[in-house]
Amino acid sequence: MSHGPNLKKFDEGRLMQVLVAPIVSEKATMAAEKSNAVTFKVLQDATKYEIKAAVELMFKVEVKGVSVVNTKGKTKRFGKSVGRRDNIRKAYVMLKTG
């Protein structure tokens, strides 16, 4: 896979799906203030390159870097029944200043 700016152009429809939802939490807010990073919940199989392309496409910003965290879903009990939260893949997207 070629790395760099001229890697294959991603399918826009796919990019629209890569970012599931923005994550607003204390940690995400702190990351935003400290390192100019925004946090998104992304598809389980999204790559860093896809995430970068998706963010640049949707928000017309320049992305400095992307780091990704996979979170295992916790098992939660509701009375007698046991449920699991979904596994989540989070992307911390560092933006260039400006």
Query: If you compute it from the alpha carbons, what radius of gyration comes out, rounded to the nearest whole angstrom?
Result: 15 Å
The SSE order reads: HEHEHEEEE
| Strand content range | 35-45%
**What is the straight-line distance between the termini?**
30 Å
| Second rung of CATH, namely the architecture | 2-Layer Sandwich
Strands across the major sheet, in which order? 1-2-6-3
CATH class: Alpha Beta
Number of helices, counting only DSSP H or I runs of 4 residues or more: 3
In short:
This protein is an alpha+beta fold and about 100 residues long.
Question: Overview of this structure, please?
Answer:
With 98 residues, the chain is α+β, with helices and mostly antiparallel strands. The protein has one domain (12-95): RRM (RNA recognition motif) domain (Alpha-Beta Plaits, 2-Layer Sandwich), CATH 3.30.70.330. 30% of the residues lie in helices and 36% in strands. It has three helices and six strands; from the N terminus they run H-E-H-E-H-E-E-E-E. It has a four-stranded antiparallel beta sheet with strand order 1-2-6-3. A two-stranded antiparallel ribbon has the order 4-5. Strand 4 (75-78) and strand 5 (81-84) form a beta hairpin. Helix 1 (12-18) packs across helix 3 (48-59). The two termini are 30 Å apart.
